[in-house]
Write a structure and sequence with these properties.
Structural class of chain A: mainly alpha
Oligomer: heterodimer
Order of helices and strands of chain A: HHHHHHHH
Shape of chain A: globular
Strand content of chain B: under 5%
Largest sheet of chain B: none
Shape of chain B: rod-shaped
Number of helices of chain A: 8
Distance between the termini of chain A: 26 Å
Structural class of chain B: mainly alpha
Helix content of chain A: over 70%
Mean pLDDT of chain A: 87
Largest interface: A-B, 38 and 30 residues
Helix content of chain B: 55-70%
Low-confidence stretches of chain A: none
Distance between the termini of chain B: 102 Å
Low-confidence stretches of chain B: 1-11
Amino acid sequence: MPGRDRQSPLDWLFYATVALATGLFAWTINVVFLQAPVEKTMGIVQKIFYFHVPSAYCMYVGATDCFVGSAAYLIRPTPARDALARAGGELAVVFGAIVLTSGPLWAAKAWGVYWTWDPRLTTSLLSVLIYVAYLVLRAFGGDGEGERKFAAALGILGAANLPIIHYSVQKWSGQHPTVITSKGGGLHHPAMHLALGLSFTAFTLFAIAILWARVRVELARSRLLRAEEDAVDLGLDDRAEA
Amino acid sequence: MIQDTSSGAATQNPQRTPDDRSTSFQAVEGGGETRSGTALMVEAYAVIWTILLVYLVLLWRKQASINRRIDGLEAAIDRVAKKKPQ
């Protein structure tokens, strides 16, 4: 097909984002392991923090994206809005899984137990389970208009838990630390600040790149599905020929 | 008082006998320090990169599946185009 493989400026922007995220990850790893000092009471296990917190932030990004796509889809259903919601749901589960595995590994050292029913841990687990349910619904619940709208409602419902996760520490106390606060935070070394800042930037770019790639794949799948249906109707498809 | 058992101290105190060395290990009762922090950190980073890698592989496979279906569709179009009289 003529022009099919031509790269658009958006493609180059995508590649630039991926390259920048990769470079920033390399720099982050360097700063985290070679420059940032070991924490006084927790020791080296505190370095999990530099990837755990940005992962939690990316989970929020995915969940917010799912909410925006779902709400927009309910207002006016389009394949792009549905793809945005679906990609956001996947992102929330991927980064939620990272949060729920890296956190307990840190807690094993800091608290002496892998898991405790702390408000933030419990609400985070609940949120990830909601998005797992969302993806299961998308995978096995069919791809009709009704199913998509039902999934969009679940995508909106899932976002309702996000502020609860965030404010659970302030509202119900618990054991989970609150190092990053509006009053400046608890990182007292410049290299610690740099490590966290770089990690946040790298994870943000990486999340954008994944989201972008996933939306494109989903849109391509949606277009292909329509083209296959048209092909069957016109007698072009293998199934019609057989 | 903490006893210095380093080799330097042993050289300065020739009166010490092999029986002065520790002959048993005592567990800290009630402590939660059962895992190495380094091992936990390595495990955490391994898990993070594994999850991301698995997701990227799944995404790549999804894209590859779409490409295969597009190829099938194009082949069907080509077959019909060849059959069609010019």
